[in-house]
């Protein structure tokens, strides 16, 4: 990465892939943000390097500038260099943003998979409970059929027994209750005298 001395021991990050210009300028990645105009930025960055280093940068990209059909003046070469550095910084920022978004996407995918698993487990539980409820419902339906059948049988038995019940009730009503009472008392006396 290409960096320069910004005075008072500070370094400024300039590029990522334009490397190996000088061992003095290779340091760890410590980017500084500049909020200034493009022209001022060009002058400030140019002032960070010695004339020898600027000449190395310009001679390194002079052929590319010519290849693009531009005049290979020092100013055009320096503008091309800064445009490339800006582009590399932008690409680096986009890569960092993409990495962050990929990490967030992986986290969301993990959360979604966990939710799908949880929903799947709940669906299985609901299916089991529904199967149990269906079995109970079938048992209840079978019991209702049996109860209905017993009720019909009882109603049929009652219909068959009703004429005999009516006849017995009629016979009881024809008996003289006073005679019946005296007969029962006599019968009871016979039974109790033997004891």
UniProtKB/TrEMBL annotation:
Location of the Dynein heavy chain coiled coil stalk domain: 90-182
Pfam families named in the record: AAA_7 (PF12775), MT (PF12777)
Entry's Gene Ontology cellular component terms: dynein complex
Gene Ontology MF annotations: dynein intermediate chain binding; dynein light intermediate chain binding
A GO BP entry: microtubule-based movement
Source organism superkingdom: Eukaryota
Full protein name: Dynein heavy chain 11, axonemal
UniProt source species: Tupaia chinensis
